[in-house]
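User: I would dearly like some help making sense of a protein record. This is the protein in question:
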Amino acid sequence: MNNLQQKLRALLQDRYGLDQLGVALLLLGCLLTLILSLCGVRYYRLIGLLPMVLALLRVLSRSVEKRRAENDRFLRVWNPIRAKLGQKAQQAKDVDHRYYACPTCKKTLRVPKNRGKIEITCPHCGTKFKKRT
């Protein structure tokens, strides 16, 4: 191993590293840079660089527990959003069913397509409502 690799290894020893929040910050920085440059914002590079610098500081941090707690808070917010987006994408691919929200409990209900106007009974709360499929 050469001298540069040893110095780099010593620098990164006992550091937190990259996690989901770090990746999100990097993507946010890239997205901000792109959008702000297209909009003609004057200091778009600096504004887009801020989340990237924050991600780098998190990667090099020695406060592992604090960074882990930050990532856990981020995931508590992000995971429901990601699940909802995945659910919507899956529903869009389903050509045999329609999806409706129950007017009372807001649960998502799946019914077969092309049945005309039908009465749907929510299995969770028992509410009945009519929809065209």
User: Anything to note?
Assistant: Residues 15-93 form one domain. The CA atoms of residues 101 and 108 lie 5 Å apart.
